[in-house]
Amino acid sequence: MPTIADRVFDNGLTVLDTEANAVHVCSAEPTTYLEATDTLSLGSSASVSFGAPQDNAGAEGGREVVMAAIIDGSITASGTVTHFAIVDTVNSRLLVTGSLSPSQAVTDGNDFSLGAITVGLPDPAA
Questions:
Q1: Pair type for strands 54-55 and 41-45
Q2: pLDDT digit string (tens) for 25-76?
Q3: How far is CA 122 from CA 6, 8, 97, 106, 118, in A?
Q4: 3-class DSSP assignment, residue 31
Q5: Peptide bond preceding 102: is omega within 30 degrees of 0, i.e. cis?
Q6: What is the pTM of this model?
């Protein structure tokens, strides 16, 4: 199997730094931009900030980027938050989804925060 250089991984992950501009907390895992931002969204924040690509020190290796913690999210609908969705609102693109554990009941009008989120691409299996 070919070896993939860090630059290839980094350019894929750089999309998150250059295009991601909102994170939504959702009642289920969205599969489309519309689900992430409307149908399943219970709240959002536009304070998305990713660091530069770096080595993933875990067993799977590869490269990763880390989204800084969110401290200013706004809940816009009551329900149970189970997933997050990172989106590009300029181009209407769903970029990354993931589960949140534990799930949490939220109430319209409240605020939310999220810890840092790591997104990575593992090295290919040898």
A1: unpaired
A2: 999 999 999 999 999 999 999 999 999 999 998 878 889 999 999 999 999 9
A3: 11, 12, 17, 33, 12
A4: coil
A5: yes
A6: 0.92
